[in-house]
Write a structure and sequence with these properties.
heterodimer, A: 366 residues, alpha/beta, Rossmann fold, 2 domains, 5-stranded mixed beta sheet, B: alpha/beta, 5-stranded parallel beta sheet, globular, binds thiamine diphosphate, binds magnesium ion
């Protein structure tokens, strides 16, 4: 095996070596001003660190989130900076993690918890559906659930089974949960800060294939935006303006939609790309305004199409913009099959070509 | 098929059990269910046999030493298992396998878990138990298909009586309970080996599985490989029980601790557990103390959470060198036998290199083929759509199917 750590004879020594550098890097990010190149992973990490600095009731816990910094390193350095009281590893039990978070939220804390992978949140489904989602309603608002459940989700990384599920529809279907999913580095920061601030429970779906995507962002400006109370909840973004048809996408599908729009532009077709950002609450206004303008739309999602967020979007748009439509709305989604093994996943995932085919089918000749 | 459903109600079971235990072992049911005061260990790391009174055995916790031919057969599987682990790790480094959670260091557990079973028995493995799966008789290439990444499993569980390797932690333990219960209802004496790791014992399904097995008095052996870590999290964060084996008494079953790098002790403990389970004594919980010598998987960096010195300490307790020294001292293993075993191990490694190296073309339409036993019209439609894409890509002279590739 490869062992690279220098002469450290005890676990504690190892710990401090690994975490000291993580803490130093977190501190460096904290001070940075002006545009810098940042990954989605670092943006999410910085959002948690900033929230923890601002509010001592914010806690981070889950599996491997402490010393290791999470299997995706999204919580890297938090234990070093904030101590084991505020960022810690739990026993290996997802229902336990969520259920304990419910109790902590009842008793004055703001838990930000991590499910290691999409499919490993399923043992916690009962706690999420029966308690996290319903507590506020059952108690007529006496008990709030200010908690964030972070879920790395979806495919595109060649992961093995149970590591690539698109589980957002289960949560979106559950009344009482807000569901956020960022697609850009800046939104990673913005939306996680807002989720932590929220008094409602937020399922924070992180497209794992975008963790290492980079962008130029100005953290100082994002912090100022946060402090001024700017909100993205229920606000879709126009990721690329266009006039001929609308591509409606969220999370992992946004970059695919943008690539399709770029390809279409070369062929003289102008596609507008909408990044939904928060699935619940849903921004009917922005989405329908775009479709009313273009008259045509394709909804794109990695999840299975049947009984999904994408079906909900189609239903809502036709209810509100039917008379503006020049063609039925079409969808490009994952097939209704279990997420496939690594060598087959590219046949499953929505692709630029499939999106362009769908756009071609939007009855242009009529 | 005759279904027998004559298992007794829980109250009767508990009552019987105390009486049975006293009659059989002359000790109280509590002393039977609590693990012996020390772990069972028969061979020292240097290969010397421990004296009888140093093996950790006690009244009611007695383990006869396995026979020579059984030990030689087990040693051969041990050497093959190590070779397979290292071959697979190499295939991952070469990019020919997607991932491999190696059981390097835990091969004695892997071998014992499979070898103690009889023909009709079942094994329920985790992602880390590929060597046990193979030892149980599954074709090596079929056993590793899951890690090559072309399908989620490569073998027919019913052909081998081996469940598919399970990743959602401890969910398979309940399947093991169900298989045992069905067999019991049919009047069969099937024993089921249900495997999990130390970290996994924190999951809710672990609790439910043990309780069900005990209440229905089923012949299930819960075999926990305590390799000290769940990815980065040490056992001290999972449980503060005196040992994981101590959990057994809380469910009303017997627990035992065993040196998981001592193949002799493992075979002894597992053989007796299988015998007791088959005789109708109900489930047992066995905790094997071992160590994961490599990172959790190739994607993990173990230096972040454990010191080199700890790894070195366990290197000295390696199950292979120990067994080799023991068998050599006993005069069972000579150079000729060693060479023959090494040759066997090498042939399995070659089989893996050839079977997993060759780029078997994937069948995209298989995506739809196995979702249901009776296909739906919707899936037929989706399958036709993909077939159309593939045909267009091919006629465009695009054999690599890049036409369906997702945007990066
Ligand atoms: C329900 C569930 N939660 C989380 C995971 C992610 N995960 C995979 S292996 C693992 C650690 C398991 O540790 P342990 O049970 O000790 O087995 P080991 O890997 O050490 O063999 C974790 C957390 C999972 N597979 N299933
Ligand atoms: Mg372990």
């Amino acid at each position: 095996m490869t062992v690279t750590t220098t002469a450290t004879s005890t676990t504690t020594a190892n710990v401090s070596a690994a975490t000291a550098s993580a803490a130093a890097s977190a501190a460096a990010t904290a001070e940075a001003t002006g545009p810098q190149s940042l990954t989605m992973a670092k943006a999410l990490n910085t959002a948690m660190a900033d929230a923890m600095r601002a509010d001592p009731s914010v806690l981070v816990f889950g599996e491997d989130v402490g010393l290791l910094g999470g299997v995706f390193r999204i919580t890297d350095g938090l234990m070093a900076e904030f101590g084991e009281q505020r960022c810690f590893d739990t026993p290996l039990a997802e229902s336990g993690i969520v259920g304990m978070a419910v109790g902590m939220a009842i008793n004055g804390m703001r838990p930000v918890i991590e499910m290691q992978f999409d499919a490993f949140a399923y043992p916690a489904f009962e706690q999420i559906v029966s308690h996290v989602a319903k507590m506020h309603n059952r108690t007529k608002g006496a008990l709030k659930m200010p908690m964030v459940i972070r879920v790395p989700y979806a495919g595109g990384i060649g992961g093995v089974e149970h590591h690539c599920d698109s589980s957002e529809s289960y949560y979106a279907h559950t009344a009482g949960l807000k569901v956020y999913t960022p697609a850009t580095v800046a939104d990673g920061y913005r939306m996680l800060r807002e989720a932590i601030d929220s008094d409602d429970p937020v399922m924070f779906m992180e497209p794992k294939k975008l963790y290492w995507s980079k962008d130029q962002v100005d953290l100082g400006a994002l912090r100022a935006e946060h402090d001024a109370g700017t909100s993205t909840e229920g606000r879709a973004a126009v990721a690329r303006p266009g006039t001929d048809a609308t591509l409606i996408a969220y999370g992992p599908s946004v970059p695919t939609a943008l690539a399709a729009a770029a390809a279409a532009a070369e062929e003289g077709r102008s596609l507008e790309v909408i990044d939904v950002r928060t699935l619940v609450p849903f921004d009917d206004e922005t989405v329908c305004a775009s479709v009313r303008k273009t008259g045509r739309a394709v909804v794109i999602a990695e999840a299975h199409g049947f009984a999904s967020v994408s079906s909900e979007i189609v239903a809502r748009v036709q209810e509100r913009a039917f008379h503006y439509l020049a063609a039925p709305l079409l969808r490009v989604t994952g097939f209704d099959v279990p997420f496939p093994s690594p060598k087959l996943e590219h046949y499953y995932l929505p692709s630029v070509d499939r999106i362009l085919d769908a756009v071609d089918d939007l009855q242009w000749e009529d | 098929m005759t279904i027998h459903a004559d298992h007794s109600a829980p109250e009767t079971v508990a009552g019987d059990q105390a009486g049975d235990v006293r009659a059989k072992f002359g000790i109280s049911v509590e002393d039977y269910m609590l693990p012996a005061r020390h772990q069972i260990q028969m061979v020292n790391p240097d290969g010397t046999l421990r004296s009888k009174d140093e093996q950790g055995t006690e009244p009611g916790h007695e383990y006869p030493t396995p026979g020579d031919s059984e030990l030689m057969a087990a040693y051969e599987r041990l050497v093959v298992g190590r070779r397979v682990n290292d071959q697979n790790s190499a295939l991952v480094r070469q990019g020919r396998m997607a991932v491999y959670p190696s059981s390097h260091g835990q091969e004695a557990c892997q071998v014992a878990a499979a070898m103690c079973l009889q023909e009709g028995d079942w094994l329920f493995p985790t992602y880390r138990d590929a060597v046990a799966v193979m030892t149980r008789g599954v074709d090596p290439v079929e056993a590793m298909t899951i890690f090559r990444g072309d399908w989620h499993s490569g073998y027919d569980p019913k052909k081998y009586n081996v469940g598919i390797q399970c990743t959602p932690l401890t969910t398979q333990l309940l399947h093991a309970v169900g298989v045992a219960h069905a067999a019991k209802l049919r009047g069969e004496d099937t024993v089921v080996m249900a495997m999990c790791g130390d970290g996994a014992t924190s999951e809710g399904d672990f609790h439910e599985a043990l309780n069900f097995a005990a209440v229905f008095r089923l012949p299930v052996i819960f075999f926990v490989q305590n390799n000290k870590y769940a990815i980065s999290v040490p056992l001290s964060h999972q449980s503060v029980a005196p040992s994981l084996a101590h959990k057994a008494v809380g469910y009303g079953m017997a627990g035992e601790r065993v040196d998981g790098n001592d193949l002799v002790a493992l075979m002894a403990v597992m053989d007796r557990a299988v015998k007791l389970a088959r005789e109708g004594s109900g489930p047992l919980l066995i905790e094997a103390h071992t160590y994961r010598m490599q990172a959790h998987t190739n994607a993990d960096d173990a230096t972040r959470y454990r010191p080199d010195s700890e790894v070195a300490e366990w290197q000295a307790k390696d199950p292979l060198t120990r067994m080799k020294a023991y068998l050599t001292d006993k005069g069972l293993l000579d150079d000729a036998a060693s060479d023959r075993i090494a040759e066997h191990a090498e042939s399995v490694a070659t089989q893996l290199r050839e079977g997993l190296g060759e780029d078997v073309p994937v069948q995209p339409l298989d995506l739809f083929k196995y979702v249901f036993s009776k296909p739906t019209p919707q899936l037929k439609e989706q399958s036709d759509m993909l077939a159309g894409e593939l045909a267009r890509a091919e006629s465009a002279g695009n054999t690599d199917n890049s036409g369906t590739e997702s945007a990066k």
